[in-house]
Design brief:
Elements: E1 2-6, H1 12-22, E2 26-30, H2 34-42, E3 46-47, H3 51-57, E4 60-63, H4 68-76, H5 81-84, E5 90-93, H6 99-111, E6 115-118, E7 121-122, H7 124-130, E8 134-137, H8 141-146, H9 148-152, E9 157-160, H10 166-194, H11 199-207, H12 214-225, H13 234-251, H14 256-270, H15 281-289
Parallel strand pairs: 1-2, 1-4, 2-3, 4-5, 5-6, 8-9
Antiparallel strand pairs: 7-8
Helix pairs in contact: 1-2, 1-7, 4-6, 10-12, 10-13, 10-14, 10-15, 11-12, 13-14
Length: 295
C-alpha cells in the first residue's frame, strides 16, 4: 500500500511521521515547506514532487490543511487530487472544515471514482506527536473499516460517525465547547481577581471543583504565567468558531455564547495577537480592566 500525506504543519507533520514509523506502508509526503518534508523523510517517508505526483501514486491520501480554502485548492484545484488521483483511491481529509465544502468535495471526487471521508482530529500538537489524537471519521463504512489500522498508527481513538460530514459536525461542536469554556474561564479569573482574591488561590479552588476542565487549565496556566506562545494559533481557532457559526446560520440555530466568543477573539486579533495561543483572549479582559491577574 502507498499512502500519501499532504500538509505537514504543526499537526500534519507529526501525524505523517507517526504514519511512516508505525503503519508499515510506503508513505509519500508533500508540503510547500521543504524542511517539513525533510523532517518526514527522516522518519521514513518519501518526498513527493507535487500534489499531482503524490495523488497519482497513492492508494490512500490524507490531507491536513490550515483552512477550507487550502483544502479546496488541493482537492478541487488544477493539478489537485480530483484531477490526479486514480479511480479506487481513498481520501481522508483531516482538516477542520466547512460542512458544505466537505459534501461538495465528496460529490466531485465520487464522480472521479475516489472515495472521500472527512476525519478531523482533536488533541493539539502534543497529541499529534504522541499519536494519541482523537479522530472523528465519517463517510463510507467499508472504507473506514478497510483503513482502520492506518488511522490507529497516528491516532489514539478513532470514532465512526456515519455519512460524510458527520466528523466535521462533531469537530465544530467540540471546538465550540472548548473555546466557550476558555472565554468563561478568563471571565471567572478576572472577576475573582477584581473582587480581591489571589488568582493563584482561586486557581487552586477551581482545579478541585466543578469549574475544572481541560479548557480551564489551558487558560489558567497561560494567564498565570503570562506566556501565550502558540501551540495552536488564535487565528486558526477563530476560523474554527467562524465555521461553527456559519453552520448555525445555515440551520438557523442560535449560538449566543458562540457569537460573543467569536467577537472576543476578533478583538484579540485586532490587537495583533492572532499568532498567539487562543487563551490570549485573557489579555483582552486584562487590557479592558487594566489589570493583569498574575499580579
Amino acid at each position: 500500500m502507498v499512502v500519501g500525506f499532504i500538509g505537514l504543519g504543526r499537526m500534519g507533520g507529526p501525524m505523517c511521521r507517526n504514519l511512516a514509523r508505525k503503519s508499515g506502508a510506503e508513505v509519500l509526503a508533500y508540503d510547500l515547506a521543504r524542511p517539513a518534508v525533510e523532517a518526514c523523510a527522516e522518519a521514513g517517508a518519501t518526498a513527493a514532487e507535487s500534489v499531482a505526483d503524490l495523488a497519482g501514486r497513492a492508494d490512500v491520501i490524507f490531507t491536513s490543511l490550515p483552512t477550507p480554502a487550502a483544502m479546496e485548492a488541493v482537492v478541487l484545484g488544477t493539478g489537485g487530487i480530483g484531477e490526479s488521483a486514480r479511480a479506487g483511491t481513498t481520501y481522508f481529509d483531516l482538516t477542520t472544515n466547512s460542512l458544505s465544502l466537505v459534501r461538495r468535495a465528496g460529490a466531485a471526487l465520487e464522480e472521479k471514482g475516489v472515495t472521500m471521508l472527512d476525519a478531523p482530529v482533536s488533541g493539539g500538537p502534543k497529541g499529534a506527536e504522541a499519536g494519541t489524537l482523537s479522530i472523528m471519521v465519517s463517510g463510507p463504512r467499508e472504507a473506514y473499516d478497510a483503513n482502520l489500522e492506518l488511522l490507529r498508527s497516528f491516532t489514539g481513538s478513532p470514532v465512526y460517525l456515519g455519512a460524510l460530514g458527520g466528523g466535521t459536525i462533531a469537530k465544530l461542536c467540540n471546538n465550540l465547547i472548548g473555546l466557550c469554556a476558555v472565554a468563561a474561564s478568563a471571565e471567572a479569573l478576572m472577576l475573582g481577581t477584581m473582587a480581591g482574591l489571589d488568582p493563584k488561590v482561586l486557581d487552586e479552588v477551581i482545579r478541585s471543583s466543578t469549574g475544572d476542565s481541560i479548557a480551564y487549565r489551558a487558560l489558567a496556566d497561560r494567564a498565570l504565567s503570562g506566556d501565550y506562545s502558540a501551540d495552536f494559533a488564535l487565528d486558526l481557532s477563530y476560523k474554527d468558531i467562524h465555521l461553527a457559526l456559519e453552520l448555525a446560520d445555515e440551520l438557523s440555530v442560535p449560538l449566543p455564547q458562540g457569537v460573543q466568543v467569536h467577537n472576543l477573539m476578533r478583538m484579540a486579533r485586532g490587537m495583533g495577537w492572532g499568532s498567539l495561543d487562543p487563551t490570549v483572549i485573557m489579555r483582552v479582559l486584562e487590557t479592558t480592566m487594566q489589570r493583569e491577574i498574575r499580579s
